Amino acid sequence: MADRFISTDEHVQEPPHLWTRRLSQAKWGDRIPHLDRQADGTERWIVDGNPLALAGAASAAALMPERTREPQCWEEVPAMAYVPRERLRAMDADGVDYAVLYPTVAGVGGETFARITDPELELACVQAYNDWLIEEWAGASERFIPQCIVPLFPPEAAAAEVRRAVALGHRGVIYPGVPMELRAVPHVNEPEYDVLWATCQELGVPLCFHAGASTTTQLAPHEGYSPALAGALEGLTRPASTAVVLVNLLLSRILMRFPELKVVFAESGLGWCAYLLEYTDHQFENDKVRNEDFPLKPSELFRRQCYFTGWYDRISLRIRHHIGIENILWCTNFPQATSTWPRSREVIDAWAENVPVGERQQILWGNAAKLYRL
Amino acid sequence: MQLKYGLVSADSHIVLDRDAFKRHMSAVKWGDLIPHVRETEGRNGQTVDRWFVHEELTGGVGGVVNCPAVMPNREIEKIYPERWEDVPAKVWDPLERVEALDSDGVDAEVLFPNDPGRGQFFRWGDSEFELACVQAHNDAETEWRQASDRFAPLLILPYLSPIETIVAEVERGAKNGHRGVNLLGTPSNIGPNVKHINDPFWNPLWDICEELEMPLHYHESAGAGVHPMPRWSGFSLNAFHTAMTSPTAATVAQLIPNLIFSGILERHPRMKWVCAEAGVGWINYVSEGCDHEWERRRLWTEGLTTRPSDIVHRQVYVNFWYERSGIELRDTVGVDNIMWESDYPHTTSTYPHSWEFVERTLAGVSEEERKKLLYENAMRVYRL
């Protein structure tokens, strides 16, 4: 029998009516996130008057006839992207038992509404997403593990939404790794964010930084690139851009103040991870940071509290002990273009034969089951 | 070059003496704009020496020279010399530096720039001034090559000049004994007049580097146009240095994919590209990740007919100095693609205990592979 598998990074596709049905039309009008039909017949998401930087009406290229082409209007979006019971079929076809859910329109790392400068509208959009995910997805099957998004700032408001969402059934908290890039807010290392970290720790829900929430940390594609090449480049720059969020966190002292807090780096990939942990330890020693009341090395803090997420990286599993067997999660990244769907099991089989069965089960199931308390 | 120790550093930093630019630039024409060391007031009001370029204070992390590895009490604290007389001659005097190499058991070193030569001469938007500084820098490096064939200096380029001038500087450097070219990761960030690296403008540079067997280099993040985490005021200077430099080293994991997807490497199959001071393990991320995207998106239909990991094995080189996890994966990286580096005289340098690092890092590596990693690959890439 195949190992059980929790795919720890999958994306729901928000349907066109999600926000228009839940927010007051009288109060917010066209500022409500909605799909807008362009002159050429394609559709684009508009949030508070600004077009969203999505390559289509949805991100579902793994389900499209050509992976380089996103659906350009809602009629083209495959049902497996947005209909929960259809999604279960997609999971069955790929050997996925449980799926941990991240947004698409709301931002792969929960960053979209953080750009809204009106806190009331921001909160309304956030709460509509969180309510919808519980009602439509978590309500449809226990195989979906819902995670909430939060308003960016102030941290008290974010913490309050975490409490509300977790009470509804959310199991994780998605937060942008570089909030300062999205709005003029204090540095994420400042103690005023502690209330948010403390709430996650107290409620036992992981804090999830998904790659791509910040774009300035990624190399911009050349304007001469075709969509296929730009997408391929982003497939490399996005996971690698996690490096700045990771190292900053490990040196921020946040993990020392909140030793029970768990942090997931979603869509990190694994390929650069052992290398960067070793690199950071080396710099840490050479820069004499240890003398500054740092009882644990960066890699030790990581192993105590953090997780990387792989989906195709076979090579790095050979040096998994440098990352930490307990710190590796697996996923399919469905339904993005880079997803291994519908052949995720083939990818897993390719590395699994060289990994002892106990460790394999930890990576595919045990670590995530413990983290999400299944 | 005669091998004595069996160890070549593929990444060290030249320190030009305080008069190097004066020797190679016209005093009549450039006067005090010439890069030089002069006294100024330090942070705490004391008198310090600093490099001035174009009459502006310049420099990086601190001190007059970035050379903490040769400063006293290194095991306990990190020091940058504030006065020129505190800078040990074994970093800036080529003959004394050869002795430092001997004391560390190193045969030869590839020389990357140091302040003020780390590519800031374009900052004033004056192409003539930039070219004069760049040529003076490269000529001063030639003096080192003349002093000893144990030095393999790398060229810096005049980015504001026409491509013919840039190509001519590479040809001149190749004649003068330079062994490669150090490049900015995102040259177009200099300003609107500098073309994107993917632009055909640069083709003659790629052609000449391929023809003359001059490997191209990204050093660390290569100053790429990728933003770091905004600086947190709560970091000490040392913690900030760790927070800043650790992830920026991983920037090459974003830059090399662009060299692959742009077709630059594929179109120049004999071109070599070296990533220095960025470690080893990330290159597997690039090979495996680019292969994954190439397959998923069928990029052979976009004209990229060579599998990305084949390009990496054929053309991309990486350096190590302490990294166990990367060495454990040397077969997938390619044992012909890995070189050793000391990073002398920067903070992270293995000097003066380089062989201790070598033994610790290469435990369990066969003799044949050790030779490749410690000197054979570097001697081949740099024609030593």
Q: Calculate the terminal CA-CA distance of chain B, rounded to whole Å.
A: 6 Å
CATH architecture of chain A: Alpha-Beta Barrel
> What is the approximate shape of chain B?
globular
Total of helices of chain A: 15
Q: Pair with the most extensive interface?
A: A-B, 66 and 68 residues
> What is the CATH architecture assignment of chain B?
Alpha-Beta Barrel
Helix content of chain A: 25-40%
Total count of domains of chain B: 1
Q: Which terms summarize this structure?
A:
heterodimer, A: 374 residues, alpha/beta, TIM Barrel, 6-stranded parallel sheet, 3-stranded parallel sheet, 12 strands, 39% helix, B: 384 residues, 5-stranded parallel sheet, 16 helices, 11 strands
Structural summary, described in words:
The complex is a heterodimer of chains A (374) and B (384). Helix content of chain A is 39%, strand content 12%. Chain A is of the alpha/beta class and 374 residues long. Chain A has one domain: TIM Barrel. In chain A, helix 6 runs parallel beside helix 7. Chain B has 384 residues and is α/β, with parallel strands linked by helices. Chain B has a single domain, classed as TIM Barrel (Alpha-Beta Barrel), CATH 3.20.20. Chain B has 16 helices and eleven strands. Chain B has a five-stranded parallel beta sheet. In chain B, strands 1-5-6 form a three-stranded parallel beta sheet. A three-stranded antiparallel beta sheet of chain B has the order 2-3-4. In chain B, helix 9 (252-261) packs parallel to helix 11. Chains A and B meet through helix 8, helix 9 and helix 11 of A and helix 8, helix 9, helix 11 and helix 13 of B.
